[in-house]
Amino acid sequence: xxxxxxxxxxxEEDLKDRAILDVGCGxxxxxxxxxxxxxxxxxxxxxxxxxEEGERRARAAGVANAEFRVADAEAVEYDQxxxxxxxxxxxxxxxxxxxxxxxxxxGECLAFVAFHVDQWRETGIPSRFAYEEERxxxxxxxxGFGAEHLAVDRRVASFGSVAEGLAAxxxxxxxxxxxxxxxxxxxxxxxxxxxxxxxxxIVKARRR
Length: 208
Ligand SMILES: C[S@@+](CC[C@H](N)C(=O)[O-])C[C@H]1O[C@@H](n2cnc3c(N)ncnc32)[C@H](O)[C@@H]1O
Description:
This protein is α/β, with parallel strands linked by helices. 36% of the residues lie in helices and 26% in strands.
């Protein structure tokens, strides 16, 4: 789900004449929402299958102002997409901030949701996309952005038993087995832990 707080931050901007770049767009969840409000939206993702799915969804919904391209967001430069705003939902890194900083003009906006370092803290393995507030502020500053909004959205689920904790993480089991988080989470529950933390940073920054 895309956080209503994030969508409200985007709505504050005058989107209708803007060309927006959606970085790490996946199958176009945010891209297609923004296409309803903006002049043009380009979604980029390195996963060709996700891009095909985004194109399919755009066609099915009759959306003509959304484009999708396979691209490595940490390797290409963004000026080729002529963005007037850059957004990203759960795909963020120093390299992406640097590229947005080089492509946006003063006054233009970078808005994103990023994993906070406390996301799934019970597994002991932070996402490589995770930030904490201070480091993120300094990376934004170093790339010419002033942070206008930077808030942590944290939800901690509590369980009465190991079985409840496992059931809550069941949709993540395959992914966590592949990345090593699953055995660490099981161990956490077996040692008496009874929580699962989700934590996101919701950010709007403006190019100085
Ligand atoms: C958690 S998903 C979020 C997808 C989408 N923004 C959404 O909210 O539905 C992260 C996405 O970032 C993409 N991604 C990760 N690193 C990338 C990179 N260097 N260049 C382009 N896409 C990348 C992945 O392929 C994946 O589709």
